[in-house]
């Protein structure tokens, strides 16, 4: 059997899987929690027993968070400064709180999305799943 004769596993549906990751749910069943603390991914799903220890999220969610928050707040800062010219302390306070709040909101959701993307594309050991 050559490499070209080997059966190719089809990708799992991407968008429903990414939505499950955004909701911080298991990318396989969609009902078990993906995270066991703020950013720690469970080793296995508590509902369907899907092995999640293969994920390699590493720094990806942090980079995506910085990219999204930077673009949103960069535009917001430019708009606020050019239209309203707020007091510097007010300007700093609003955007510092906005930056921290938006970062804390997005980081676990983007970690779920990165893990779900890896699951959907059968990356890093997710292709050996016997239930798929």
UniProtKB/TrEMBL annotation:
Q: Which residues cross the membrane?
A: 62-83, 89-107
Q: Which UniProt keywords apply?
A: Membrane, Transmembrane, Transmembrane helix
Q: What is this protein called?
A: Uncharacterized protein (DUF983 family)
Q: Which organism is it from?
A: Shimia abyssi
Q: What is the lineage of its organism?
A: Bacteria, Pseudomonadati, Pseudomonadota, Alphaproteobacteria, Rhodobacterales
């Amino acid at each position: 059997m050559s490499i070209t004769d080997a059966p190719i596993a089809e990708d799992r549906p991407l968008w429903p899987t990414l939505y499950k990751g955004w909701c911080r749910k298991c990318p396989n069943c969609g009902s078990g929690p993906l995270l066991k603390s703020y950013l720690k991914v469970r080793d296995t799903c508590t509902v369907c027993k899907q092995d999640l220890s293969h994920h390699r999220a590493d720094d990806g969610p942090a980079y995506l968070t910085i990219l999204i928050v930077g673009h949103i707040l960069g535009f917001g800062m430019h708009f606020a400064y050019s239209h309203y010219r707020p007091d510097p302390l007010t300007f700093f306070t609003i955007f510092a709180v906005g930056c921290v709040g938006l970062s804390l909101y997005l980081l676990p959701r983007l970690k779920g999305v990165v893990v779900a993307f890896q699951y959907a594309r059968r990356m890093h050991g997710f292709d050996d799943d016997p239930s798929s």
